What does this fold into?
Amino acid sequence: MIDLVQREAERQGFHRTLEIRMKLGEYSDVVPEYIVDLFPRAAKGTAAEGAQLLFERVPGCFRCPDCGYEGLVDRHEAKCPGCGGIALKMTAGREFFVESLKVE
It folds into this structure.
């Protein structure tokens, strides 16, 4: 994330990042609190220093190849709510990326 900000700062000529917006999937295994905790030390001396981190959660969505259902699935049951099938394919929920930067 900090490398991305640095590359963009060099490419676009900005010196300060005010805000970093990220997409974070429910099943990404990323803990936002850890990122927020470690970010100030990692960003020190870079164009990302002092930036506010904003996370947008992306729920896990699935598609069932048996009945065509698309949507949320109970995490504890892990089966299609439409037909009870277990051959689900995740279509969203593993995201972890920078969506946008607010800079000056």
Summary: The longest helix spans residues 32-43. Strands lie at 17-25, 52-58, 61-63, 70-71, 89-92, 96-103. The chain has a mean pLDDT of 95. The first strand starts at residue 17 and ends at 25.
